[in-house]
Design goal:
The structure holds 2 protein chains of 2 kinds. Helices cover about 45% and strands about 15% of the residues of chain A. Chain A contains 19 helices and 9 strands. In chain A, strand 5 and strand 6 form a beta hairpin. The radius of gyration of chain A is 26 Å and the shape is elongated. The two termini of chain A are about 30 Å apart. By secondary structure, chain B is mainly alpha-helical. Chain B is about 60% helix and about 10% strand. Chain B has 4 helices and 3 strands, in the order H-H-H-E-E-E-H. The chains are: A alpha/beta, B mainly alpha. The interface between A and B is medium-sized, with 13 and 11 residues.
Chain lengths: ~450, ~130
């Protein structure tokens, strides 16, 4: 069954929505644009997270010890191995595969221990400060290094979550697990969920550790703490490399910046993968839709699709997790406008899965004055495989009696359910989104109930 | 009428007035907003008991029983229906009371007790 943007949970038939789970649901085909921020572990009230942070920083500082013992090559090897953790699927890669750092970058990282006496003596408290000294080390590397050193914990966490949800585990050989006792990377045979496309093992990461940008990061340092006049005077320019060089000679600036970030730690929170638009924006989007003329004039159809996609993704969250817009079928012949994962988070969605076998819900957007038979047939053609036999037409005006009867006939003849959501329904959704008296998904349920009542017994 | 029916009527009538007052405020603010499931459940309980007491003769609409939670009734829908029930309840009361020496009483089945009530609203309004 070919799901659009397949996720671990949906593939294995687990119905929980992203908002209900403790971990971020990995995609099979791409990375999630979030990163593990070690600062979130440091500031966490949980003793476990704090201890993990201590272990993580100790593991990183161990490379300094190796350096001092004349085992630089070992430290270089460790940093290279730690620099990529494909199993977690975080970052921007389109195929869940990343590249490790080169030897030169690893040596440059070790050079920081030599160049800054404070680190040579005491090591890092927040190892993400390394971003402020080495070019090419940023949020993705920090996240991967953290995951690599914490991999042993992530294995246990993944197994626990998968057993709880009933996600099948397979015996796999996992490379580069950091052994805290031996202080080195080892491989091991463990039971983990696997990517159905590639059979690669998957590790789950708690949502509470994830941010789009680490709390301590170069851009923030440059904008808020870096004395640009000093940098220019001493280095001759204020581009990234010059700032990094300046920092090596001026540890005090970095230390002050980090202290300031620690003081404002209460403001540091994890980022959700999806954020609903505020009520005012939802109302604005609705007004924009209502003002649009029907048809394709002045790109009205594109504008309609954009506004409706943003609006629906927010209105239907957290009951339906948004999957994709403009998703092409395998041959590229058809483009489905909006696709949602069917999380079965409300009773009616369970019924949609049972009666219509819809693991994903497809919404077809039609900015037309009147829905014709062709529009209904087009949506009907999409209703195969993963989409089951349930689809929604998002259009401007109610269906004519003849077209409504057409949808009823489709149900009678083929047990296909095609609902039409109109501007009026969107308005009601926005209204309940604002008043919080009902959930917007209940408007879809209302339409379904009305449709089913019109169907012959 | 039986004493228990009169008690039931007076309770339901007070509830209908209360519901109407509360829902009217909401309906004025946002008439098309959906009523939450908790309120609908309580409104339905009251309407269901009204249906039993009023019977087919006094029920406002033969085809309306209670609200369907899944149909997302709006504030104005509820206000409209509740006001219809208030009117029909008053018709029901007006048909079951009588005046004696300038005072209004409920018609009690075979009882000697006298239960006073107010004059029909349509008389007060004149």
């Amino acid at each position: 069954m070919a799901l659009v943007r397949p996720r671990l949970t949906d593939f294995y038939g687990v119905s929980s929505a992203q908002s209900e789970l403790d971990f971020v649901i990995p995609f099979f085909g791409e990375d999630i644009p979030l990163y593990v921020d070690p600062f979130l572990l440091w500031r966490s009230p949980s003793h476990q997270d704090e201890a993990l942070h201590t272990g993580l920083v100790n593991s990183f500082n161990r490379q300094n010890w190796l350096l001092h013992k004349g085992r630089e090559n070992e430290a270089v090897r460790n940093l290279i191995l730690a620099s990529e953790c494909d199993e977690v699927g975080l970052g921007l890669s389109a195929n869940r595969k990343g590249k490790r750092i080169g030897e030169a970058t690893a040596r440059e990282m070790l050079q920081v221990f030599r160049a800054v006496p404070e680190y040579a003596k005491h090591g890092f408290t927040h190892f993400e400060e390394i971003q402020l000294y080495v070019d090419g080390i940023s949020k993705d590397r920090i996240s991967d290094i953290a995951c690599s050193f914490l991999k042993s914990f992530l294995i246990d966490y993944t197994i626990e979550q998968c057993i709880r949800l009933g996600i099948p585990l397979e015996r796999v050989t996992l490379q580069n697990i950091y052994d805290y006792k031996r202080q080195e990377f080892v491989s091991g045979i463990v039971e983990l969920p696997v990517n159905a496309d590639t059979s690669a093992p998957i590790l789950l990461v708690p949502k509470r550790w994830l941010r789009f940008v680490p709390w301590i990061n170069f851009d923030d340092y440059f904008a808020t703490a870096c004395p640009k006049d000093d940098v220019v005077n001493r280095q001759g320019a204020d581009d990234r490399v010059h700032v990094l060089l300046y920092n090596r000679d001026n540890y005090g600036m970095v230390a002050d910046y980090v202290k300031a970030k620690e003081r404002s730690a209460d403001d540091c929170h994890n980022d959700p993968l999806f954020t609903q638009i505020p009520v005012t924006s939802a109302k604005r989007k609705l007004a924009e839709i209502k003002k649009l003329a029907t048809g394709k004039g002045e790109n009205a159809d594109k504008k309609y699709e954009q506004a409706a996609a943003t609006l629906l993704a927010s209105l239907l969250y957290p009951h339906l997790d948004f999957a994709a817009t403009q998703s092409r079928s395998e041959g590229g012949a058809t483009i489905r406008d909006l696709v949602f994962y069917n999380n079965r988070s409300v009773d009616f969605l369970e019924e949609i899965l049972q009666d219509y076998r819809s693991r994903q819900l497809v919404f077809e957007l039609k900015n037309v004055h009147r829905i014709e038979r062709d529009h209904i047939n087009q949506l009907n053609r999409y209703l195969t495989n993963e989409f089951g036999a349930f689809g929604v037409l998002l259009t401007r005006h109610p269906l004519s009696k003849a077209m409504f009867n057409n949808t009823i006939q489709l149900w009678s003849g083929q047990r296909r359910c095609i609902l039409a959501l109109t501007d009026a329904d969107l308005e009601l959704m926005v209204q309940v989104f604002e008043s919080k008296q009902r959930f917007p998904i209940e408007v879809l349920k209302k339409k379904y109930v009305e449709f089913r009542r019109a169907c012959p017994v | 009428m039986k004493r228990t029916e009169i008690d039931e009527f007076e309770k339901l009538n007070a509830q209908l007035e209360g519901l109407h007052q509360e829902m009217s405020v909401l309906a004025k603010k946002s008439p098309n907003d959906a009523v939450n499931a908790f309120k609908i459940k309580l409104v339905n309980t009251t309407i269901d008991r009204c249906n039993k007491l009023l019977g087919e003769k006094y029920k406002p609409f033969a085809e309306f029983q209670t609200f369907e939670t899944d149909e997302l009734p709006s504030n104005s829908d509820v206000t409209f229906i509740v006001s219809q029930y208030i009117e029909c309840a008053e018709k029901f009361r007006a048909d079951n009371i009588f005046m004696e020496h300038g005072r209004w009483y409920w018609q009690l089945d075979g009882g000697k007790d006298e239960i006073r009530t107010s004059a029909p609203k349509k008389l007060n309004n004149k």
